[in-house]
């Protein structure tokens, strides 16, 4: 087993298809498939389930993928630290965020940082809070933005914004487009589209629990961990969404109308976090100074 095989396997796991992984790695499909076969034979376990059109990881494959990501992350960190000593700030800075929060905080800071440190390259991974925590734990990223809360004691953090949740409708929805505020009771039996628990248990349960506490009958027609998908369903007229206000940054604001919620404390806090025991690269420490 060598580093190349780990890199190949991670690419296959992330792309879900041999063909896409081969394109990403700039190699032909047959040698990539052969390397996967050699790896499975050496380990004596099946890593990839090939019974479906798109490949999926077996249970053993999931465990191996997490460790392989961790090993590759440590190798990148070792290389970057050695280069920092010799050449100054350079290398790859791997970061992560949910799409909306990343759009809010990263682009301008990355631009400024690149001007000051042009030899640093960024790897920006996106995902919900659960995914960002996974990437942190496997050392794929050095720090990430998450919606709180996260497990106490495991992370250092810098607080970011605390924002209100809003009801989102189509801009041309005659029932809501003229409204600036509402109370939750008005949403009884209205078709709702909510963030899935996978996007953040707190984000999901806070909304549901608040409505239950007020005795409001909920009509949840869809839940998703993808904000773009939620907004697309609102755009198609499936229902109203209840979301943190920053999530609207993933789509043009003129497509939607936001209505504030009166009489309740639906709020979402976010922070930028990193592993408490992890030694951050020089580039990561310098970037964090911008927050």
UniProtKB/TrEMBL annotation:
Transcription listed as a keyword: yes
Coiled-coil features, chain-numbered ranges: none
Name of a matching Pfam family: LysR_substrate
InterPro entries: HTH-type_LysR_regulators, LysR_HTH_N, LysR_subst-bd, WH-like_DNA-bd_sf, WH_DNA-bd_sf
Residue ranges of every copy of the HTH lysR-type domain listed in the record: 1-58
Swiss-Prot/TrEMBL keywords: DNA-binding, Transcription, Transcription regulation
Protein name (record): HTH lysR-type domain-containing protein
């Amino acid at each position: 087993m060598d580093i190349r095989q780990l890199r190949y396997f991670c690419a296959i796991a992330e792309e879900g298809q041999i063909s896409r992984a081969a394109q990403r790695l700039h190699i032909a499909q047959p040698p990539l498939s052969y390397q996967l076969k050699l790896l499975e034979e050496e380990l004596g376990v099946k890593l990839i389930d090939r019974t479906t059109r798109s490949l999926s990881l077996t249970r053993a494959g999931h465990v191996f993928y997490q460790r392989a990501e961790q090993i590759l992350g440590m190798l990148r960190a070792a290389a970057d630290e050695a280069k920092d000593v010799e050449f100054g700030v350079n290398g790859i800075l791997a970061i992560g965020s949910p799409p909306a929060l990343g759009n809010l905080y990263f682009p301008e800071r990355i631009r400024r940082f690149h001007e000051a440190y042009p030899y640093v390259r960024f790897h920006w991974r996106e995902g919900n809070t659960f995914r960002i925590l996974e990437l942190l734990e496997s050392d794929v990223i050095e720090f990430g933005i998450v919606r709180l809360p996260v497990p106490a004691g495991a992370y250092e953090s810098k607080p970011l914004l605390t924002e209100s949740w809003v009801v989102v409708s189509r801009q041309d929805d005659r029932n809501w487009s003229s409204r600036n505020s509402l109370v939750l009771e008005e949403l009884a039996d209205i078709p709702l589209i909510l963030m899935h628990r996978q996007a953040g248990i707190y984000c999901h349960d806070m909304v549901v629990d608040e409505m239950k506490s007020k005795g409001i009958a909920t009509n949840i027609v869809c839940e998703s961990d993808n904000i773009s998908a939620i907004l697309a369903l609102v755009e198609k007229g499936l229902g109203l969404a209840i979301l943190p206000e920053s999530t609207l940054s993933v789509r043009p604001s003129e497509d939607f109308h936001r209505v504030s919620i009166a009489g309740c404390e639906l709020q979402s806090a976010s922070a930028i976090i990193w592993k408490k025991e992890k030694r951050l690269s020089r580039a990561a420490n310098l970037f964090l100074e911008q927050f």
